[in-house]
Amino acid sequence: QLSCLLKMVTLHGIPKDLDSYPKDLLLFLSPSDYAATGSCSQFFINVGKANVDVLPREAPRRQQLLLEALACLKIPGTQINEENSEILGRLVCDLGGEYIRSSGGRLLKDLSQCGSFLPDQEEAIRDVISSGNTTFGPPAAWSAFTLSELSGLIPVLDHSILQQIPK
């Protein structure tokens, strides 16, 4: 439905008020198509607010969006800073374990909003949390507030991490 709606909206070119349309619509648009109305980083700020789960995780379009976002933001290697993490929004849910590990705890809060994880992502999240080198500190120092901030990651935590968290 969204794909069809996009075809109707862009029938006579990209509308200047595209930002006022539902963000989910942008999942079916290319950043180069959007270029007439804004920068690629603005495009990915809007895509990051969309419900990426509209596209299945393995969908080529969803994988292409992540690759285009990484290229647009000129991210060298696998380290994502906080500013780029914010721009990527829900696209961080598709970053591989290597990105999660090398970005340290910077992605944890964004990752906690993801619905599910692949095994290599889960392992990377556990590694980062176990290291204790995050803004949240080691699990032994966590509070109820920390747990609410990271609530989406609780299912990923294993017994060795859970037992460190104070009652």
TrEMBL record:
Q: Kindly list the places in or outside the cell where this protein is found, as annotated in its UniProt entry.
A: Membrane
Q: Name one Pfam family in it.
A: Mesothelin
Biological process, per Gene Ontology? cell-matrix adhesion
Recorded GO CC terms: cell surface; membrane
Assigned keywords, A-Z: Cell adhesion, Glycoprotein, Membrane, Signal
Q: Which InterPro entries match?
A: Mesothelin, Stereocilin-rel
Its principal location? membrane
Family in the record: Belongs to the mesothelin family.
Q: What is this protein called?
A: MSLN protein
Q: What's the gene?
A: Msln_0
